[in-house]
Structure formats: C-alpha cells, structure tokens
Design brief:
mainly alpha, 347 residues
Length: 347
C-alpha cells in the first residue's frame, strides 16, 4: 500500500502554515539562531492534527470511564469463569458490547497519529542538499532549500543525533551541537511521553482486565523505553513535533479530567506490585456506612495501688431542705417581721 497520500497531506499542511507565517511577517531569517517560520509550521501542524482528533479523544475518555465503571462486573466474571478462559473472553466481549466500552480505545489516538508521524519523518528526512527530488509532494525548489537550511539554535532541523559526518558536512552543522540539542530534545520527548500516560492512569486507575492492563503497561513503560533507542534516528524537526504533541496532550487531558472528573469508586485499584496494607490501614480509619466514626483514643488515667483505678473522692453533700415546710399554710395571717431597735444617732 502506497503512503504517498500521507506524504502529500503532511507536506500540504506544513507548507500552508509556513506560507501563513511568512504572510503575517514572521522573518525568514534567523532570530536567536532559529528560523521561526519553519518551527511554528511544525508546531501548528500539531495543533491542526489535535483539533481534528479532538472528537476521538473525547470518545477515548468516555470509553475509559465505561471501562472503569464495569470493573466490579469484570471481577465477578473472572471469579465465575475461573479456569475457563474461552467462556470468560466471550462473556467479557458481551459485557463490553452491552456497556459500549472498548479496551482498545485508549490506543486509538496513538494509532491515528502514527501515519502523521511517519509522514513527517519521511518528509523531513528528505531535506538533504544532494536530494534530486526537491519538487516532490508539492514542494518548490525555494521551499526545499529554505527548509534544508532551517535551524533551531543554529542546529539544522534536518539533523539528528545519529547523523554521519558526511550528512553534517552537507548541512554545515557541528556534530557536537547537533548531539547536544538532539539529546536534550529526546530526553524531553521521553519524559513527556511517560507523563502523558501516567497522568491518565493516575486519574482512571489500573484496569482489572489483564488485556487492558497490558496495554496500560505498554503505554507507560514500553513506548518511552523504545524512544531511548529510536530517538537517535529522528530528525530534530520530528522530535520538535513529538514534544509539542505531548505538551498539547498533557494540557488537553488536564482540562478534560477537571471538567469531567472520573466517577467516584469505593476504593482505588492498586497498581501492579502495590501492597494493600496501606489501603487497608486507611480504610480502617474511615467511618463505615451505618457505623459511627471511630472516636479518638482516650488517654489512660493513672492507676492506684495494685493496678486499680482510684475512685474519685466523694464530695460532701448538703442536707436537703424541705421547702414545703417553709411555705405558709392556706388561710394563715401574714407574719410581720419584728422591728429591731432604731439605730442611735451620733452627736
């Protein structure tokens, strides 16, 4: 199957954005050793792609929420059909269909972005002064020459960590500068790839389904590890695309997860290898439904002799006064208080 249509589409979007930045006055020369019209063209290629894929990203979030909601049912099926893998898979597929959940939806955006990455990789890899097919995929000779000499901090975007001495000589680049900039960008690419997967897993939890959990492990650890090796063959322009895409994904996921937070669950699913002791301890301290919350522990009072607690000292009680005896009887004459002798006046 020919991928020329992908190369044409990527070239068209890239050249369209480059022309747009030129039209609004972005200098064709270098500022801080950078040709910003080409760098911005790569960045806005990412923006164009993410706008197109946004509805699919929303479907991905909904599918992951559905997968999270059916975890108790999946556990029940695993207990019911333990040892019968064929029946278990059949029942799980029926549950996915009924609840409109797709365990593979988490990888769909990556699968859709893969052709774009391959197309950009092919287009930027052609940026070589000795390339004779300069006008392929709708490029003009001037555009090809401009992109070939485009730089980021005085390093050509067509260079890569593993560029040979002959390639560096044709691009008029220093091997040390190319390796330093490419190494820093590849490290940022690996870190942001890991963070995008970790951000989503921390919000939705680890899946109970072994197949789904394997996909989560692959996205969290496998893809970043593979970039440590494959990053050496990526042109710097491709690494710029990947880093920009990851930063866009981080911001987009944060916005979606804040606006549509995951549904509350009885308990967070433990990560692989995580012990449940901490979770059990925390659950003991929480008030249970229908039970009063645990009261704070009272400090023990000092005991008396022989380990017996001292009884509080008895307080002397006043004799009770019968108020009925002091009250006047019905019909009795009021008693006038006796007058004492008048006080003597002085002087």
């Amino acid at each position: 199957m020919s991928l020329d249509w992908i190369y044409w589409a990527i070239s068209w979007i890239l050249l369209l954005w480059h022309s747009a930045w030129d039209a609004i006055g972005v200098s064709a020369g270098t500022v801080l050793g950078t040709n910003w019209s080409w760098i911005l063209a790569i960045i806005f290629l990412v923006v164009t792609l993410r706008v197109i894929l946004f509805p699919i990203f929303v479907k991905q979030i909904k599918s992951q929420r559905a997968m999270q909601a059916i975890q108790p049912q999946l556990r029940a099926l695993q207990e019911k059909h333990k040892g019968d893998r064929e029946t278990l898979q059949k029942e799980m597929m029926e549950l996915y269909r009924k609840e409109k959940a797709n365990p593979l939806m988490g990888c769909l955006p990556i699968f859709l972005q893969a052709p774009v990455f391959i197309g950009l990789f092919h287009v930027l890899r052609r940026l070589d002064p000795i390339n004779e097919g300069k006008t392929r995929y709708g490029w003009t000779v001037d555009q090809f020459e401009s992109a070939t000499h485009a730089r980021l901090f005085d390093v050509p975007i067509a260079g890569k960590f593993g560029s040979s001495a002959a390639e560096l000589a044709r691009l008029s680049a220093s091997g040390t500068s190319v390796k330093i900039l490419a190494g820093v960008l590849v490290a940022i690419m690996i870190a942001t790839t890991y963070l995008t997967s970790r951000q989503m897993i921390l919000k939705t939890g680890w899946a109970e389904d072994p197949q789904q959990r394997m996909i989560q492990r692959l996205m969290l650890y496998g893809i970043p590890a593979s970039l440590l090796v494959s990053g050496a063959i990526f042109p710097i322009g491709v690494v710029i695309y990947w880093v920009t895409n990851n930063l866009f994904t981080l911001a987009q996921q944060q916005w979606v997860l804040r606006k549509y937070p995951p549904p509350p669950t009885p308990s967070r699913l433990p990560r692989p290898g995580e012990t449940s002791s901490r979770r059990t301890t925390d659950s003991r301290n929480q008030p249970q439904p229908g039970r009063p919350g645990r009261q704070p522990k009272q400090e023990a009072k000092p005991a008396g002799r022989f380990g017996r607690a001292k009884a509080p000292a008895a307080q002397p009680q006043k004799p009770a006064v019968d108020t009925r005896a002091l009250a006047p009887k019905p019909g009795a004459k009021p008693v006038k208080p006796k007058k004492g002798p008048a006080p003597k006046r002085k002087g």
